[in-house]
Amino acid sequence: MNISKSTARHGRYSVLRTGVVTVVAALGIVGCSSGAVDTTAGITDDHLTIYNSYKIAGLDPAATGTNWLFDWGVAENLLQVEEDGEITPWLAEGVERRDDLTWVITLRDGQTFQNGKPVTAQAVAAALNRQIEKSKAARVYLESGTQAVAEGDTVVLRTPKPNAMVPAGLAARDNSLQIYDVEAIDAAAGDSAKIVGSGAYTGPYAITQWTPTDLELARYDAYWQGTPALSGISVDVVPDEQARIAGVESGEADMAFYPSTGARLALEGNSTVAVKNSPKALQSLLIEMNLKEGVFTDVEVRKAFTQAIDYQGVADNIGNGSFDAAEGLYPEGLPYALDNQKYDLEAAKSILDKAGWVVGSDGIRTKDGQRLTVRFVTQAQGPETTDVAIGIQDQVAKAGFELRIDVAEDSAAVKENPAGWDSSIALSGSLSGTADPVQPYLVRWTTGGSSNAQGLSNPEIDAIGEKLRGTFDEDERNELLERAQEILVAEQAYVVAGTFKYFTVVTSDEWSGYEVSNVRRHIRYDTGA
């Protein structure tokens, strides 16, 4: 596997098409020189203001909640995932697999951190090693024992065993493998306020102010790809969706992220705003079952529930153009995607009949004095999760389920108590933010995974996960993912995709030409109105 300029002449494979990267094209290189961040720019016509719903938890990449470093153009990875799903060079000029345990990373010349320090092989190796040591999320991709060593102008990455996840890891948004000035981050000693103004990252925009609800960024004039298009960016956390959209309508903000599915209809005919979708619907709203306590410890009840959901109806009647129907755990068109999520109301009723659940006078089933009640958790920050829940509530009621919706400010915290929930729907995709299927698989569905709140523990699922880590063969990986879907969806009904979501942004009329990213690269150096 060679991700470099030279491979561009020989062909490409798309992650979205194959799930495995073999050869890809390189980015063009724009020369740059070292320099300081321009922190004097005020709010001008080329200043972008974004209203977002999620708090900005912290600034140290080894901590949690730093995905936004990637999203807003602050930090960069060695590799990147393009909008069509291809992994290509970014800070790296190329990445080559020398053998099953060794990867060689060649850096571009002339790159600097925002504080003017050069991006050397030693600096890159230090950032990778710090992440491997301190970030559990990073170790999903680069497990303990992985070592990065500077050798001249290259970085050699050595893994303790064959690791096919290296390219996806070096490109990942989700696991804090961005490159940064370790000395500047360590000097802050965990205090995010001390990272402000340190110029620790390499992206086109540098942090000048920060609180968990307010982020201010200024253009880095010496950015390696060229002069960034905007003087600065403000990201303000506005929890209320109506307030976010009203801010765009009034001109206080240029963009509002995470609108509900009803926003498009509500704003129809409003010439002051535009509702923009990403080209592809890649993010699944996963419906997970609590396997520790409650009604879904019974596989037959799980199967009845998943077959009582009308997946096409969710997309058609709830999405308002924001959803694509889910036929399986992965978006249609991927070579490993199975269409094994089937809506069959009569089959669902029959399963419950045979299991002894009797329909009551109000249409809700009971068994041994217990009502067939499902405590269903949604995310307050993702209003579309509640929209979908309301639609599913009516659908599964026809089979005899009573769905009680819990709109949680912190759904993860609710799910920490096994006695407090039965099922959930969340913006927690079967693909990572950069279209990788393996990382979500490992953290959500293998025993002890960091996002496995369900308590899912299946020996075959675990064995598949281990094989996915180590196989470089595309056909084998696809076969493994297909078998996993048979278990997860059809045989055990542990999890299904409620729908697939286009990433949607409400913009001002001035920003109506903004192109929404499939892979959450919301801000690039050339992003402009």
From TrEMBL:
<feature type="domain" description="Solute-binding protein family 5">
    <location>
        <begin position="86"/>
        <end position="449"/>
    </location>
</feature>
<dbReference type="InterPro" id="IPR030678">
    <property type="entry name" value="Peptide/Ni-bd"/>
</dbReference>
<protein>
    <recommendedName>
        <fullName>Solute-binding protein family 5 domain-containing protein</fullName>
    </recommendedName>
</protein>
<dbReference type="InterPro" id="IPR039424">
    <property type="entry name" value="SBP_5"/>
</dbReference>
<dbReference type="GO" id="GO:1904680">
    <property type="term" value="F:peptide transmembrane transporter activity"/>
</dbReference>
<dbReference type="Pfam" id="PF00496">
    <property type="entry name" value="SBP_bac_5"/>
</dbReference>
<dbReference type="GO" id="GO:0043190">
    <property type="term" value="C:ATP-binding cassette (ABC) transporter complex"/>
</dbReference>
<dbReference type="GO" id="GO:0015833">
    <property type="term" value="P:peptide transport"/>
</dbReference>
<dbReference type="GO" id="GO:0042597">
    <property type="term" value="C:periplasmic space"/>
</dbReference>
<dbReference type="InterPro" id="IPR000914">
    <property type="entry name" value="SBP_5_dom"/>
</dbReference>
